[in-house]
Amino acid sequence: MADTEYKRLIQAAKGRALFGYLAVVQRAMQDADKSIVDLLSEAKSAIDRSTLTAVRHFLRQDGNVFLRRVDMLFRAGLERAMQTMYVDLRPGMRQVSADELSLIDDEVVTHQIEVGRLAQRMRDANEESIGRLNVIIARLHGQHEAKERENPFRPYLLARTLYDAIKETVDDEAKAKVLFEHLSTTLAHHLPGYYNAIREVFESSGVVGKFQAQRSRAAHNQRYFGAPVSDPAMSAQLSARVMPGLQRVLETLQSSQGGAAAGAASFGAGGQAEAPGAAAPGAAAPPSVQEFIRTMFSPARSPGARSDEERRAAAHANPLVAQLDAFQKKAVAGGGADAGTALRDRMDLSKASTMDRMTVDVVSMLFEFILEDDHVPAALRAQIARLQIPMLKAAVMEPALMHDEEHPARRLLNRMSTAAVAADPASAAGKKLAAEIERVVNKVLADFDTDSAVFEDSVREFDQFMSDFLRQDDAKVSRGIEAVEDAERFSVLLGNAARDLMDVLLPLNADKRISDFLIMLWPHVLVRAAWLDQQAGLGPDHAQSLYRQFHAALPELLWSVQDKTAQDRGALMRLLPDLVRRIRKALEIIQLPEEEAKGILDLLMEMHTQVLRGAPKAGAPAPAALDDLRQQFARLVVHWERASWNQAEPPPPREDLIEEILGGKAVGAELHFGLNMPAASAADREFLAQTYLLGTRVAFRAADGSNRAGQLVWISTHRSLYLFRQERGAALAIYTPASLLAALQAEEIVPVEYAPVFERAVESLLFGAGSLQ
């Protein structure tokens, strides 16, 4: 690469990084401010509230000062990183004198630990983009081995900038720690766009970071390209069926030269390439089979789905679609359907375009791998493989299917395969699952014309089937599901009640002692009362409703501690006995420790005594009337059946509560709540949502190395709790997103599928294609 082009790319990437990082930090500050507002409603101690309030004040009042410091530090750090790419300016040990050596103090160690942790979180959330940038920087410097420390855009520089900027602008250690924790969490959520923008600078100029497909060292949990099939050498029979297709693709690429490369690019853009004919002099070298297949399945190249009108036009103009329609009708009529390369052998491809022929070859080879995938029982994968005809037809009409991981046809194939992993087709449950898979496949074969909505509908129907199937299959699981949902609903209502109660109390300017007491405890009182009413079959308006009693106590309690006229003091004397009785009962139902309950009741007695003995202060504003307070508190509503949650993060679960609920339903379960773990990031939650679906099979790994088979049988409505069944002894285990991720990282839980079946087939095909190079 010419020196001028090198400098242009580096400077363009540098500018994108400088602007992008400052924008990311600004968005992280906004998110942190929202998060702190939510936490303030849940803070249990005055110290926590004080610290959170101080951090929020800093973000709002000193945010610009902080951003300027971030900008200055990042510019300096990035400039030095640019100068030291693959240039070692560190002195060797022989050049360092004893006078220059010193012991590392605790502050330096803390700095390294905190920065290192954040850098690792950033790396984990952007593994592919950072890896490709490492390769790009290495290529620009003529290096074959990519090293992250030579990448000027590495996560460490971002993490260190954030840590140092906080340290230099926040004088209070406790406040600095809380701010770093919140900004670290929110910052990691926004980094994918930052790294994608830097990659785009290089990739738009043709400088890309290509990974080599190689045998996976951890195929049991790898989710990326490069894993081999179960048999490292591939079976001789499978090789015999797949290799002719790979050879045809190779010959087509070699004969087309630069035209094939253009064809691959047009496929990635959703076009259809025709046979290019002879290569022009000076044309680019043809891509390898591996590169071509990787291009077909590259998510980054997806242009989005075609409209139904575009699909119909493509179908009408393509003779291949008419053939597939005929095969599809025959399969519906019960005439059977070939799968894998056998289907390709029966097709007339003489009038098909070059890209259509290669699409037929690639899809046929993918289904050969699917037919051989021993994760899924043979009888079930034979049913699933009948989807080859509609999937091939969809790929011909809508090339986006090949590189869109979220295309409904791919999701349906993966969804049913995941549910079928390790199933026993001879059992009653296995037969029920097999019947549903057959029904869904038959529906797709019968209904798919040009509209991919049939795949989306089928995914939705199959998800509903799995939800009902897993719940009905086991009475213990059914009770465990009810417990998980009740526990999450309790958490949702608790958070909402605390927020709504604060909104009512703050404008009333109530005595701080009473407002603190109400904010800390009364949301728990109201939610538990609503739960107990639901169990007793009582509505909120029923005369015996606990919720009704305790909700009515709110305005009465607030009114009871206000200054009173002589007439009002008489009304208070009549109210107090019943009010105190309800407060005492409220503290009992939330199981407040006796000593704390006594302290609250003593405080109320002291406040009521002062009110009854005192007189209104001259010139003081008139206190709110009881009816006015009742009207204000009418805005606070807790209904057990109406629990909505509109936050991005799932509601925080409570271990003590779910233990109580499980006990009430006579269900035993292992609880893994990871209370001291950092919350799962948005990227982590998205990974779980995409990978861990109802019915996913796993292995629980014990300390002695033994495994217990398990299955994910429920995910709570707002994804705060994951319920697993361990098949040996039918024990249940409950995880939060953070604890589940930790268990996966520690390999205490190992997925039976290291990747969905479609992605496994692609990886195996890439691995096979590598043998042709």
Strand content: under 5%
**Overall pLDDT:** 80
What's the main sheet like? 6 strands, mixed
**Secondary structure tally: strands:** 6
Across the major sheet, the strand order is 1-5-4-3-2-6
- Which stretches are low in confidence, meaning pLDDT under 50 for 5 or more residues running? 88-106, 211-234, 258-283
Backbone CA Rg: 32 Å
The helix count comes to 30
Structural class: mainly alpha
* Quaternary organisation: single chain
Distance between the first and last residues' Cα: 25 Å
* 3D shape: globular
Roughly what percent helix?
55-70%
Mind explaining what this structure looks like?
With 773 residues, this protein is mainly alpha-helical. It is 62% helix and 4% strand. It has 30 helices and 6 strands. The chain has a 6-stranded mixed beta sheet, sandwiched between helices. Helix 21 packs antiparallel against helix 22 and helix 21 packs across helix 27. The longest helix has 38 residues. The chain is globular and about 100 Å long. The two termini are 25 Å apart. About 9% of the residues have low confidence.
Secondary-structure map:
Layout: H1 3-40, H2 46-61, H3 63-83, H4 106-125, H5 127-140, H6 155-169, H7 173-203, H8 236-256, H9 258-268, H10 289-296, H11 308-317, H12 319-332, H13 341-345, H14 354-372, H15 378-384, H16 388-397, H17 400-403, H18 408-420, H19 428-447, H20 453-472, H21 475-505, H22 512-536, H23 546-560, H24 566-589, H25 594-613, H26 626-633, H27 655-664, E1 669-672, H28 682-691, E2 697-701, E3 707-715, E4 722-726, E5 731-735, H29 737-745, E6 749-751, H30 757-770
Parallel strand pairs: 1-5
Antiparallel strand pairs: 2-3, 2-6, 3-4, 4-5
Helix pairs in contact: 1-2, 1-3, 1-7, 2-7, 3-6, 4-6, 4-7, 5-7, 6-7, 8-9, 8-14, 10-30, 12-16, 14-16, 14-30, 15-19, 18-20, 19-20, 21-22, 21-27, 22-23, 23-24, 23-26, 24-25
